[in-house]
Design brief:
Elements lengths: L4 H14 L9 E2 H8 L3 H13 L3 E4 L2 E4 L1 H11 L1
Length: 79
């Protein structure tokens, strides 16, 4: 069964949060993120590009980390 796009977005954001990828020093490489979430690098890159436009992630070279906006949004989900 195909996993939905929104589920993939949620998984990527939650994974970045779980890995504490919250600043440029702790950013995670896209290929590592793809391996961890079980998706192709191209698909993760596409989702990360969308999250970047929405202001939820920043990218540096080929690495990604959450923005403070995303951290607050994720924290509100768990509270």
């Amino acid at each position: 069964m195909e996993v939905g796009y929104e589920s993939k977005i949620r998984t990527i954001m939650q994974t970045l949060h779980s890995l504490a990828a919250i600043d440029k020093e702790r950013a995670i490489k896209l290929e590592d993120l793809a391996r961890i979430v079980g998706l192709k690098v191209e698909e993760v890159r596409s989702i990360v590009d969308k999250l970047k436009v929405l202001g939820y992630v920043n990218t540096i070279n080929d690495s990604v980390h959450l923005t403070s906006t995303a951290i607050i949004k994720l924290s509100s989900i768990y509270c």
